[in-house]
């Protein structure tokens, strides 16, 4: 590899306070990046991107307001950053060597980048039989969120009736399996018939429904939870949460993992 690479990257061109972000807001460009030794500062690494995780919390970083958010905004013209798995090409930090595979908690969405080694969460041993994508999924933040929601906050018992929204998402597929391991009856909601099939056939859910084809959430919850809901892992908020509140049992627990149905709405604080 030469000292200069042609680098393709995604950057923020304009903030998007409400609605679905488009190519007006997120833009693609090709730039030249020097990875020559004297272009890499002390305690920095030149890395090649292997995998990136695109998660719902990133929506909050595109709004252009800091109010009410737990994470900072991307800067305009900045390459957006996400959790990623990268491979070291050149190192200016004695802790890391060329070829090391690393988990970067602030990986630029670019083919190559020069990053501070303080952004590295851990080294990954690629020889132990765990796929690299699992470090961003079940062993990453989505798996951790599912574990906190079910094991730490939900605390379901054998036979508990557990409901999980956004069941086919990164959190939902892990949460459903954790609840099944605890011996629960697990029902999920998701946005298409294919995804309902997926959660039942691949991810161990007992049953599920397509919320886009249910005009009456109250009726759907009555049908799927004749004995009420003991644990609701809420990933969507909004109308589904409102409906669930009418079906929870005494001492039910509602771990609030996220409210994705609200993320494109204008935030008034
Ligand atoms: N990923 C993480 O690391 C993490 C960590 C903490 C909290 N969370 C929260 O957990 C929730 C799920 O995250 P995830 O990473 O599992 O998401 P994901 O894999 O990106 O999947 C998100 C899913 O949410 C569903 N969705 C989108 N808009 C919706 C709406 N208006 N109403 C209902 N469902 C909608 C869509 O599936 P359908 O086809 O089913 O609509 C979509 O595929 C989010 O609220 C997120 O903020 C995520």
UniProtKB/TrEMBL annotation:
- The answer to whether the entry has keyword Membrane is no
UniProt keyword Iron-sulfur, yes or no: no
Tell me the ranges covered by the Oxidoreductase N-terminal domain, including all copies.
Answer: 8-119
> Residues in domain Alcohol dehydrogenase-like C-terminal?
170-263
A Pfam short name? ADH_N_2
InterPro entries from the entry? ADH-like_C (IPR013149), ADH_N_2 (IPR041694), GroES-like_sf (IPR011032), MDR_fam (IPR045010), NAD(P)-bd_dom_sf (IPR036291)
- Alphabetical UniProt keywords: Oxidoreductase
Q: List the GO molecular function terms.
A: 2-alkenal reductase [NAD(P)H] activity
Query: What is the protein's given name?
Result: 2-alkenal reductase (NADP(+)-dependent)-like isoform X2
Q: Which organism is it from?
A: Cicer arietinum
Q: What is the lineage of its organism?
A: Eukaryota, Viridiplantae, Streptophyta, Embryophyta, Tracheophyta
């Amino acid at each position: 590899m030469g000292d200069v690479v042609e680098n393709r990257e995604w950057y923020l061109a304009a903030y998007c306070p409400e609605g679905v972000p488009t190519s007006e807001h997120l833009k693609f460009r090709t730039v030249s990046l020097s990875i020559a030794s004297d272009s890499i500062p002390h305690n920095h690494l030149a890395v090649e991107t292997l995998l990136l995780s695109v998660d719902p919390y990133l929506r909050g970083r595109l709004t252009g307001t800091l109010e009410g958010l737990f994470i900072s905004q991307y800067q305009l013209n900045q390459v957006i950053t996400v959790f990623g798995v990268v491979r070291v090409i050149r190192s200016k930090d004695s802790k890391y060597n060329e070829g090391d595979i690393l988990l970067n908690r602030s990986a630029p969405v670019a083919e190559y980048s020069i990053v501070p080694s303080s952004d590295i969460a851990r080294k990954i041993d690629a020889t132990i039989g765990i796929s690299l994508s699992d470090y961003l999924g079940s062993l990453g933040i989505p798996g951790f969120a599912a574990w906190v929601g079910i094991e730490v906050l939900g605390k379901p018992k054998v036979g508990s009736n557990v409901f999980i929204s956004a069941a086919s998402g990164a959190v939902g597929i892990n949460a459903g399996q954790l609840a099944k391991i605890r011996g629960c009856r697990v029902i999920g909601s998701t946005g298409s018939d294919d995804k309902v099939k997926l959660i039942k056939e691949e991810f161990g859910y007992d049953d599920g429904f397509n919320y886009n084809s249910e005009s009456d959430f109250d009726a759907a919850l009555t049908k799927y939870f004749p004995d009420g809901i003991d644990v609701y892992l809420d990933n969507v908020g909004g109308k589904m949460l409102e409906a669930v509140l009418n079906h929870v049992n005494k001492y039910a627990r509602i771990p609030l993992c996220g409210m994705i149905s609200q993320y494109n709405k204008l935030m008034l604080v």
